[in-house]
Write a structure and sequence with these properties.
The structure is a single chain. The chain is an alpha+beta fold. Bound molecules: iron/sulfur cluster (2 copies). The site of one iron/sulfur cluster has 12 residues, from helix 9 and helix 11.
């Protein structure tokens, strides 16, 4: 078996839905896309400039000779209906949650690559662009990437390695039906301004926590029932039809469900926040109790939007 075949077998064993190999040349199309966004949305220029460090994999790891790119499918979890439309499914099924069964996948993959004799660095490249180059996912017009059999309910994970491997063929764009613009029409805040063009500083996923507070009233009034994140442009997408199968349980959500509803979040105290909410979303800075509560109050007023 070749090293490339052994890497793909390892990825399947770890639980990834797909694995491909990409070369390490600079992601010039990603650089061009960032510059285009800076030109179109100068008010969000800093957000895009921060991403420029991912353009050249060899600048991150001069010894790297290939990128291993894997697809984690999270569209298999029985997310409680009470949370759908309020918290993005990606965050509810985030493998960074320590009780999520996928939590250890990247570590297992890295250890497996090291076990195959490779020098390895996790990440450091633009995930979605790397997925396209490695042939495992293609862009839809909503700017999410879609993988065979999974729709867009996926995360991309990547590792730079020092082994010379033949790259896979790149993936074509996802097959959006001709004339479809359901995602653009449904986007509550107008973040999807053209096919394949998303204005990050208008996206609810950014506005709920990363954006400086307070959010402009014009946008705040359009964020609806979302407390954290947003799934609207994925939920309305015909390419996602039948791609969420709910076959795996979510005990890490079920056991705290009564404290994650908008009403419970709006009323939570500091102790509940620290013991229940923060451990699930620990990458959001801890001093955000008031923001969680404000988002939850808005969500309660809006009702369920999707
Ligand atoms: S995630 Fe929501 S706000 Fe962001 S682009 Fe999609 S529909 Fe618009
Ligand atoms: S909603 Fe339509 S245009 Fe948007 S990504 Fe899905 S198929 Fe493509």
């Amino acid at each position: 078996m070749t090293l490339k075949a052994r890497i793909k077998a390892l990825a399947a064993e770890v639980g990834y839905a797909a694995c491909g190999i990409a070369g390490t040349e600079p992601f010039e199309e990603y650089r061009a896309a960032l510059r285009d966004r800076i030109h179109r949305f100068p008010e969000a220029a800093e957000l895009y400039r921060e991403l420029e460090g991912r353009v050249d994999p060899r600048a991150v790891a001069p010894w790297a000779r290939a990128i291993v790119v894997c697809v984690r499918r999270y569209g298999k979890y029985a997310v409680p209906e009470e949370l759908v439309g309020h918290i993005g499914r990606n965050y509810l099924c985030d493998r960074r949650i320590k009780d999520c069964p996928d939590h250890a996948m990247p570590k297992k993959m890295k250890a497996g690559l090291v076990g195959l004799g490779a020098r390895v660095k996790t990440g450091g490249v633009p995930g979605r662009a790397a997925a396209v180059r490695a042939g495992v996912a293609g862009f839809g017009r909503n700017n999410f990437v879609y993988a065979e059999g999974c729709g867009s309910w996926i995360n991309i994970e990547s590792w730079l390695i020092d082994a010379e491997l033949e790259p896979d063929l790149p993936a074509p764009p996802a097959p959006c039906p001709e004339g479809c613009q359901a995602c653009r029409n449904a986007c509550p805040t107008g973040a999807l301004q053209a096919p394949y063009v998303m204005c990050q500083d208008r996206c609810i996923a950014y506005l709920t926590f990363e954006a400086p507070a307070p959010v402009a009233p014009e946008l705040w009034g359009r964020m609806g029932a979302w407390v954290y994140g947003c799934d609207v442009c994925q939920q309305v997408c015909p390419m996602n039809k039948g791609k969420w199968d709910r076959r795996e349980p979510t005990p890490w959500l079920d056991e705290v469900l009564d404290r994650l509803t908008p009403a419970a979040l709006a009323a939570m105290d500091q102790e509940t926040y620290e013991k229940v909410v923060y451990p699930l979303f620990g990458y959001i800075p801890k001093d955000n109790l008031a923001r969680w509560q404000a988002n939850a109050r808005r969500a309660m007023e809006a009702g369920k939007s999707v």
